Amino acid sequence: MYQRERERERERDYREEMARSTGKDAQALFHSLRSAYAATPTTLKIIDLYMGFAVFTALIQVVYMAIVGSFPFNSFLSGVLSCVGTAILAVCLRIQVNKDNKEFKDLPPERAFADFVLCNLVLHLVIMNFLG
Amino acid sequence: MAKLLLYLTLATSLIPLFSVAFSPENPTDRRVLVLVDDFAIKSSHSLYFGSLTSRGFQLEFKLADDPNIGLQRYGQYLYDALVLFCPSVERFGGSIDVASIVDFVDSGHDLIVAADSNASDLIREVATECGVDFDEDPAAMVIDHINYAVSNFDGDHTLIASDDFIKADVILGSKKIEAPVLFQGIGHSLNPANSLVLKVLSASSSAYSANPKSKLSNPPSLTGSAISLVSVVQARNNARILITGSLSMFSNRHEKSGNEQFLTEISKWVFHERGHLKAVNVRHHKVGESDEPAIYRINDDLEYSVEIYEWSGTSWEPYVSDDVQVQFYMMSPYVLKTLSTDQKGHYSAEFKVPDVYGVFQFKVEYQRLGYTSLSLSKQIPVRPYRHNEYERFLPAAYPYYGSAFSMMAGFFIFTIVHLYSK
């Protein structure tokens, strides 16, 4: 009888400790991520900000379509795809410009930026056409 | 000699231009052929014939079996209306028979048929062609033991009085007929499925149709107000037919009754002196313009107008009513609108073309008791939007336009920041 009570007490203590440690682990992980992110160069942070803006705009449009309906569907696609395309091109630029990336070590950042600009021009041409 | 012949042909060819009878501009009948059993009717019914001639009708009296009578010659009708005051005729003379009478009515001319207690099968057949059925018993007359006329030679109560008139001012005139109508003859019944026949004078509910000289062995087939004493038929081509079972109703005998007023008024209606409508000047145009386009676009605003006149016996008067409707019709009416009138015969309505394209018709179907039926139809196509008639920018898509342009602006700002930040 006493044995079972002690067993249950031990189980409860064990679970509490696990929870606390998971919580502590999550917090530790979060802190380490933040401090690691603070170490990234400003250029990349600007690109991340730009990308966040694009994704946020895309989300707003999806919510609007869910409320109002998809009547001018071409306009909806054009708006969402402009945001998504912008985000993708920003990601590509970030990969190519990052000095810590071994794969693109020999690619000059000016070349990456020029590609980025040209692709954006094509993207916006297509978007304007499809917007209606 | 040749010159004489030339002048003669010229003169005869101009005669049709001088006839004023029965044209669409002047719809009252003018030349009336009256077929009688014997010419004594001319004097015994002189009051009725006098009232007709005083209104300008040209009556021509012929015996019913006269071998020279004919309704048409060389394809042209000689008369505008036919009056059959010959209840006992067995066979018409000349070229008249039931088929030619039916053709006469089918071509739009009017007819008055008066049977009597000795009505022949021929007259009954004419009446059946027109849509009423006289009582099959040849000796039957309408008897009413409650509403009979008190007179000297009474006894079998066959001279009955009735005031069960149809309630239509256009048929019986606006003045109320005060005295009852005296009737002595056979009664007829109407098929309830027939929508063109109207009972103008029905017998009272105590009347029945039976042989007055013999005892009743079984109940009479025609009783009560199902017996019609005077009926009219307005055919779909607007020909008017009056059928009654008593020739003596028209005679001079009944002085203080309502016969004279009743017969005068109903003859006015039968001969198209009243209740004859014409619709002219059908026009439609877009609101704001005045000429008639050949095609409309969906969601256009348009206006339809028509002028309706009623013949007063001598001239066309504006017809005033508030229930004329126009339909915008393609297989079924998409728009049904009541036309508003300016009290001078001009009717108009404004409505929006429906959101369906195709070939529509402006239809006016006007059928009212006692009036000629108007059936107007004008075809007009309706087209959809051209590709440049749609809205350029949809308000529902403004967020998407905004996001596309904001992405472009963001890209521009980002390139500046990216290039010029260290």
Automatic annotation (TrEMBL), chain B:
<feature type="domain" description="OST48 middle">
    <location>
        <begin position="284"/>
        <end position="422"/>
    </location>
</feature>
<comment type="subunit">
    <text>Component of the oligosaccharyltransferase (OST) complex.</text>
</comment>
<feature type="domain" description="OST48 N-terminal">
    <location>
        <begin position="31"/>
        <end position="270"/>
    </location>
</feature>
<dbReference type="InterPro" id="IPR005013">
    <property type="entry name" value="DDOST_48_kDa_subunit"/>
</dbReference>
<comment type="similarity">
    <text>Belongs to the DDOST 48 kDa subunit family.</text>
</comment>
<dbReference type="InterPro" id="IPR055459">
    <property type="entry name" value="OST48_MD"/>
</dbReference>
<feature type="transmembrane region" description="Helical">
    <location>
        <begin position="398"/>
        <end position="420"/>
    </location>
</feature>
<feature type="signal peptide">
    <location>
        <begin position="1"/>
        <end position="21"/>
    </location>
</feature>
<keyword id="KW-0256">Endoplasmic reticulum</keyword>
<comment type="pathway">
    <text>Protein modification; protein glycosylation.</text>
</comment>
<keyword id="KW-0472">Membrane</keyword>
<dbReference type="GO" id="GO:0018279">
    <property type="term" value="P:protein N-linked glycosylation via asparagine"/>
</dbReference>
<dbReference type="Pfam" id="PF03345">
    <property type="entry name" value="OST48_N"/>
</dbReference>
<keyword id="KW-0812">Transmembrane</keyword>
<protein>
    <recommendedName>
        <fullName>Dolichyl-diphosphooligosaccharide--protein glycosyltransferase 48 kDa subunit</fullName>
    </recommendedName>
</protein>
<dbReference type="InterPro" id="IPR055457">
    <property type="entry name" value="OST48_N"/>
</dbReference>
<keyword id="KW-1133">Transmembrane helix</keyword>
<dbReference type="GO" id="GO:0005789">
    <property type="term" value="C:endoplasmic reticulum membrane"/>
</dbReference>
<comment type="function">
    <text>Subunit of the oligosaccharyl transferase (OST) complex that catalyzes the initial transfer of a defined glycan (Glc(3)Man(9)GlcNAc(2) in eukaryotes) from the lipid carrier dolichol-pyrophosphate to an asparagine residue within an Asn-X-Ser/Thr consensus motif in nascent polypeptide chains, the first step in protein N-glycosylation. N-glycosylation occurs cotranslationally and the complex associates with the Sec61 complex at the channel-forming translocon complex that mediates protein translocation across the endoplasmic reticulum (ER).</text>
</comment>
<dbReference type="Pfam" id="PF23358">
    <property type="entry name" value="OST48_MD"/>
</dbReference>
<keyword id="KW-0732">Signal</keyword>
